Amino acid sequence: MNEQLAFTIEVFANGLMAGVLYALVALGFVLIYKASGIFNYAQGVMALFAAMTLVGIQNGQVPFSHLINAIFGTDIHKFGWSVHSFLAIILTVFVMIALAWAVQRFVFRHLVGQEPIILFMATIGLAYFLEGVADLMWGSELKALNVCAAEGACLPQGMNMWLEGTTYEALGYGFFIDNLDIVASIIAAILVIGLVMFAQYTKQGRAMRAVADDHQAALSVGVSLNFIWILVWSLAGFVALVAGIMWGAKSGVQFSLSLIALKALPVLMLGGFTSIPGAIVGGLIIGVGEKLFEFLIGAPFLGGATENWFAYMLALLFLVFRPQGLFGEKIIERV
Amino acid sequence: MTLKLTSMAVAAVMAASPVLADLVFPSMSYRTGPYAAGGIPFADGYADYFTMLNARDGGIGGVMTAVPECETGYNTEKGVECYESLKGGGGLVYQPLSTGITYQLIPKTTADDIPMHTMGYGRTSAKNGEVFTHTFNYPANYWDGASGAINYLLAENGGDLNGKKIALVYHNSAYGKEPIRTLTELSAKHGFEFKEVPVDHPGQEQKSQWLQIRRDKPDYVIMYGWGVMNQVAIQEAANIRFPMENFIGVWWSGSENDVLAAGDAANGYKALTFHGVGSDFPVFADIQTHVVDAGNAAGAGDQIGTVLYNRGLYAAMLAAEAAKTAQEIHGVAQINASQMRDGMEALEITEEKMAALGLPNFGPSFKVSCQNHGGDGMVGVTQWDASTKTWSLISDFAATDKELIDGLIAEDSAAYASENNITPECK
Hints:
- The structure holds two protein chains of two kinds.
- Chain A is mostly helical.
- Chain A is 70% helix and 1% strand.
- Chain A is built from 13 helices and two strands.
- Chain A has helices spanning 3-36, 43-58, 65-72, 85-106, 116-138, 161-171, 179-201, 203-213, 215-220, 225-251, 261-271, 276-301, 307-321; strands spanning 148-150, 153-154.
- By secondary structure, chain B is of the alpha/beta class.
- Chain B contains 14 helices and 15 strands.
- Chain B has helices at residues 2-16, 36-57, 76-87, 99-112, 142-156, 174-190, 207-216, 228-239, 256-260, 282-292, 307-330, 337-345, 351-356, 402-419; strands at residues 23-24, 27-29, 65-66, 69-71, 116-117, 135-136, 165-171, 193-199, 220-224, 247-249, 270-273, 348-349, 366-367, 380-385, 390-393.
- In chain B, strands 8-7-9-10-11-14-15 form a seven-stranded mixed sheet, with helices on both faces.
- Chain B starts with a helix and ends in an 8-residue tail after the last helix.
- At the A-B interface, helix 1, helix 5, helix 10 and helix 12 of A face helix 2, strand 8, helix 7 and helix 8 of B.
C-alpha cells in the first residue's frame, strides 16, 4: 500500500477515536441544555470533580483532610483501606447524584424563569465553586487513575498489537490504534444507546423529553420539573464521570482535566446543543477534521499545532451555514 | 463603630503583613489551577527551607526570615498583581515561577531596584547582567538545557550525532519555543537532523504529534513541556513504544508528577536537572526535625525529597546564601532589596559551601558576576526507575556549549538593549 495513503488512513482512524472522546464530554453539555436550556459551563469541572472523587474513594482518602487537620490539629489523610473500582464508581455516582440535588436545590430552583444568560453565569460560578470544593476535598496533587475489573484486568493502555499485526500483514503497514481509545469508543456507544433507550422507553425518560419539548406543557400534565432537572444533572454527572475516567486514565487526574471542556465546544457548535446523536457525529467530524488537517496541511506547511484553532474554525464554518448545528433544532421566535 | 471597624482592619493588616524587621522572601506560588501539582511542592520546599533557617539558625545573620505567599495560579496577570501587592512588604527577591510573569516583571523590577531570580526559566538572555541588571537566572537556563541534552547524546554516541534524527516536542508557547534556535544551531554544528513538533496548550490531546513521531522515527526526542502535557506525552510515547531511554525532558518535564501517571511504561525516561534528586542529603534531617516534626511544614510534609520540592528548597538556599553575601558586602544584617541584588551579583557557590549547608554534591559550583547573571550552565541527567518510583542522577553536572550559547545571549540581549534604550553597563 502507498505509504502516504496508509498514513492518511491511520490518521483518519485515530481522528475518529479522538472524536469519540470529545463527544463523551459534549454529551454532558447536551443533556443539560436539552432539558433545561442551560449551557453548563461547569461540565468540564464536573468531569474533574467526578474523577477526583473516584480516585479519592478508590485510595481510601479522607475527604477534606487538609481542612480537618488544619482546624483540629490532627494528622489524618487516609482511612487505611482501598475500594474496588466497581464499588468506587457506584459510590461516585451517588456523590454526583447528591451534587445534582444540591445544584438544583440551592442554585437553579431559585433561578427558575430567569434569562438564559443569568443561568449561564450561575454555571460559571458553579464551576469555580466546584473546583474549589474539589481542591479542599481531595487536594491538588496529581493522582494516577486505574480502573480495574479484577486483578490485572484494568483499563488497557498502549497500542493494539493485534490490529497492528493484522494490518501489517495485509497492507504492509501496521496501524496504530490505542487500546484505551477502543474501550472509550465501546463505552461511548453503550452510553449513547443507553441514553437513547432511557429517553424512549422509560417513564422518566419520556418525562425528560416532555420537559425538553415544553416546560409549561410538561408541568401542566403533572411532570415534576424539579425531579427531572435533578435527573438530568445526575445523568450529566454520570457522563462527566465516564469522560473523567477516560481522559484521566491518559493523563492522571489533575486540575487541567477541567480544560477538556474546551474540546467539547466546537463539537457542540457543529453537532447542535440539543442532539445526542449530534454530539457523537460532531465529535467524529471534529476529531477526523482536525487530525487530517494537521497531518495534511498543519504540520507540513504551517508549523504544526493547528488542531485547537482548526476545530473552532470548522465549527464556525458550520455555524455560518447552519447556526443550529447539524442536528440542532431550528429556533424560530415569533414576534 | 467606624473607629472599631477601622481598628480591626488595621490590626488584620498588621497581623497579615511580615514584621518589618524580617528578611522577606516573597513566594509567588500556584497552589490552585491546572498547574497546581507542580506549584505546590516548589512552594513547600521554598517555605520549609526558610522555616528551618529560622528554627535552627535564628534566621540569616541573626535576622528572622518571612515568606509571604501570593497565589498566581500560573497566570501572568495575577502574577503581576502579586508582585505589586507584595512589593510593599519589603521583599528582597522575587521568584515568579513563570516565563510569562518574568517577561512582564523584567522592566518593573529594574525600575523598582528589586532583584528577580528566574532559576531555569524566564528570559534566557537575562544572563547578560549588563543589560538585565536586576534579573538573575543562575545556575542554568533553557539554552543550557538544549545544549546539555545534545552533549549528553553526543557522549552516548561516541561524540558523533551525524545522521541522527532528533525531535523536539514542545509546549507551543514562548517557553517551549526557547530551545529551537539553540537546537537549530547545534544541528548544523553536529550534523543531526532536527525536527520541531509543537503541542498546543494544555496538551491533553497529542495523538497527531505522536503519530508524526511514529512515522518520522527520530532516534531521540527532547521535550520542553509543562503540566498535563508532560504526562500525556510520556503515556503517548509509551503507547507507540518509543524507547524511554531515548526520551529526554528538560527539568520542567522531569518530576514525579510527569511519570507516575504512566506507571511502569515510564521506566527509563530521562530528564535534565541542575540540582540533586532524592532526600539522601543531611539538610533533610534538619528539615524533618525543625520543620516537619515541629508541625511547621508548609504542606502535608509528603513532598519532601521530590524533584520540585528539592527545586524549591534549592532556590531558597540560593536566596539565603545571596542574602548572607549581601550582609557581608554591606556590613548590615537588615539588608534591603538593592543590597540583595548586590549579594546575588557577588554570589559564589562552592562544593565546600554546599557540603557545609548539608547539601553535598546537590548542585554545581558556580560564580555570578555583573556580566554573568546565569552561572556556568552546568546540567546533569536523571533517569526514572518505575519499580522504586525514584529518580537517579546518571551523569555529572557537565558544561554546556558556552561558545554557542554566549553568542546567542549576546545577540538577544543586544537586541533587547537596543529596543529599550539600555546602555549595557555594570550597575
